[in-house]
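Quick check before the chapter quiz. The format below is the same one you will see on the exam, so make sure you can read both the input and the output lines.
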Amino acid sequence: MNQPLSHPNRGGGGKWLRINLANNLFRSFARRVLCFIALMTCSSILTISQAQSGPQDIGRWDWLVNDDDTVAVWRIESAQSQDQSYGNNGPNNAWRDVYGIHAALLPTTSMTSSLKHGWVILWGYGHQRHVDEQNRLNAPTADDKYPSSYFVSRVGMSPFLFWHPKDTNTTNNARRYGYVRYLFDDDGWNATYGDWPIYKMFCAGHAFLPDGRLYLAGGDGDLYDSSNIVKGYVGLRLKAILDPWTFDPFNTNQSQSLWSANNAMIEPRWYPTVTALPSGKLLILGGTHYKIHSDSAIVSEKHEIYDPCTDSLDSTGVPSNFQSVLGFLYPRLHLVSYMNSAGNGLDTPRVVYTGFDKKSYWLNALQPDSDWQYYGNDLQRSLHRTWGSSVLLPNSKDNPQSLSQQVLNQVMVVGGDHGTITTNVTETTEIMTFSASSSGGTVTIAAGSSMANKRMHVNTVLLPTGDVLAIGGIKKRASVWEYKNDVNETDEVYATEQYTKNPSTGQYYWKNVAPAPTIDRNSDGIRDGIRVYHSIALLLPNGKVLTAGSATKDNSAPQRTINNRVPTIYSPPYLFKPNGACRSETERPHITAVSATELNYGQEFVVSFDPQNDKAIVSVVLARPGSVTHSFNFEQRLIKLKFDHELDYLKVTSPWDPSIAPPGWYMLFLLDAEGVPSEAAWVKIKPPNCEGEAAMFMSLELGDVATEVSAEQADQVEQSPIRIEFQEPGSGEVIERYTLPMFAPDAEGRVSLPIYTDRQEMEYELYIHPYRSWLGKRLSVNWSRGGQIILSLRNGDVNGDNLVDALDLALALEQMGASDSASETVWSADVNLDGVVDENDLAIIAENLGSEGDQ
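Here is the expected output.
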């Protein structure tokens, strides 16, 4: 922890931000704190399951525990001193909700040190008052989309629980119970009936804005007839934004407002999906206006796009080819990326539908108000997968060197129910691979490895390693109608499975790991590990997985309600040594500093780490913080980054394109050769400038390149990124470094590269590092967003000394006649990239003799 913040060979410029991730939690803490500390250090608390294998093979489940070693239960105990008052008119005991129907990992707050990042926010049903006429409205009066002859509640209350895995404050038990706040803390629910909102955030969709705020769309309001009997549900027009910088758990002032909320959505939505776009905007799609139990649902049809720059929602109406499956329950959308058919850049990024229906649809992510397109009847999945899950898989290359090695173009769909009877839950998976085609894009669908257990309502969690966990669910419907709420106890799935690579075959398969607990330590009649309908699973910055919730009815006799208020924590096998002991901090990669926490695309930054465990870092990944409900994580995304290893630090390049990593906050993990991740640091990928184009385009003329480029040589260019620097004019001080992916030159020998930067528009010195056989170059440029710089690089540096001289001619003569068809060797003297060393290469070298690149 005492190493310097910079290295002499890192070059000049830039401020360094030190991130202290060490947590020497065992020093000077009493026994009551030690139980909690085990969550971070992996020492023993109450171990739930190790089965017959050791935790190094299957991981381990643990509880949060109280001072007397009993299990902590969220919000059943007496109200905590840190809970906000809910006012005179709020429902009694509103704070005792089931937390874990919805959850999100907040990337940033107003807190300091280790509590600044990584708070978990959870919420559940919420509460509504509807017992008398004062508390209800005629449905069409509340919203013109609602049906006549029904009523909706006039008041809805949404309590939220905030919990941090590192909060060791012992004065109010917050580490076990969390802090409760409400949607309208500044109101106190003392207003007149007419001012009460109908907002209730249950069944909303939610995703993060680029600055770390949580955007929430839609919600739930029940329909009642004149007898106050629930006859169905209605969606809400609720738009609510959580401002994390106002969150302070130690502030008991009731006027502390965390949310801005209004009735701004264009359509009411119940179960919508919210998707982050490359532009920094959000796409809101799906959900229903309302449903009466005896009738079909009336679905939301319009796209809505939220622009954080203008705080506005926009919609162009109903798409001409709208399909009802796109407007139904949580349509499960992913932003995918892949190369274009020419291989010289990305194709138009697409939002793809992976929901319950087996048909495949896509939407232009750069024009989200356009129509959906259908991939075709021959490109369907094999099964409907009602209440299954889907996961955007990471790029496979541990250290990608080209754009094609970083794209995220595969989605795995998992489990689900595919019939109308009680036996059609499936254990199968399918892999959807998206790619370019002559018609603009296609998808191939292949059977994936099957799980050992049939599952619907399954939670899937993407780990820092790229493995996927399958947690919970049920293996069979209990009835045709209320199959979500009617769960036979014998049909609950406690087995946990991990989708991982077989080191011998290189193939992925589902491995059984530690099952969730089947015991009931708090004696509430509910097994602590049950995670079925209305549950969540969420990756934490320490590499563990939080599971919570389950709120449903049980069809076994006697019929009962499953309200699981016991959170559990899963520690994957990578947190244990081969002998089964927990890995200490010194036995995991340990980030000690990050040179910049706000990054442009393609920007190079330095990550310092503690090399004391003497294991090489083999992968650097970004994981987007999760936002999950109803078996789907709106935000789950993992990107493996390019990096160069330098002693005790890494030169890392941020993602190359916003369609690969939408702007926003990410967890940064280092992984060693044993697949063990560090604890996460946090970085933010900057959004495009609200005033317009964020990228400048640099066109490199690779002088004297022939029009014919062999496939082998073109591939070598694509595997060799180029480095550039922004420097202060005159002083040469480095401001920013970029490592950009290259493409095969076009017929004119030109490669066009976007540079995303939020630099002030002014004159800079741009330095192009030597690239393959091209000399380096330094020039002054007037940077402007959307502008273009065209520059030519001189060729002929065969030996790589940034000089074209007689030595290069001599080497070319030695290689004369060599071709890539005769050998897999890349011939350094093939300076015109035509696949053979001949007189044309000699002519280029001779023409540029005496040329020297800028240093």
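If your answer matched, good. The two ends are 34 Å apart (CA to CA).
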